[in-house]
Amino acid sequence: MADELAQDIIAKIKAHADTGGEDITLNTELTALGIHSLELTEIIFDLEEAYGIEIEMNTADAWSNLKNVGDMVEAVRALIAKKKA
Q1: Distance CA 8, CA 14 (A)
Q2: For residue range 44-74, what is the model confidence (pLDDT) as tens digits?
Q3: Closest C-alpha to 13, from 71, 57, 52
């Protein structure tokens, strides 16, 4: 079951994804959603603005590090925790 942060991130991803009406879960592969570099950049900007964080990665790094929705949620969660520390 996705927590509030995960649900919020999934909602932001849905705004840019081509889901074909399918549910997005933490295990959903980003490439399966039709998310390409421009959409990924827009999602990252949305997340940075929403949570007051800075995601320091170029698009190539993002693709190699973030394979599924859960990876993105954990990356954001770690940055939020670091900001609060």
Answers
A1: 10
A2: 889 999 999 988 766 566 657 778 899 989 9
A3: 71
Whole-angstrom Cα distance, residue 26 to residue 21? 16
pLDDT of residue 50: 94
Give residue 68's Cα distance to chain centre.
8
What angle separates helix 4-16 from helix 37-51, to the nearest 10 degrees? 140
Tell me the whole-structure pTM to 2 decimals: 0.80
Residue with tokens 């399966």, as numbered in its chain: 32
**Residue 51 tokens, joined:** 């949570």
Task: Tell me the β-bridge partners of 68.
Answer: 29
Structure confidence at residue 19 as a pLDDT band (50, 70, 90)? low
Q: What is the rounded distance in angstroms from the CA atom of residue 74 to the CA atom of residue 54?
A: 14
Q: How far apart are the first and last CA of the chain?
A: 26
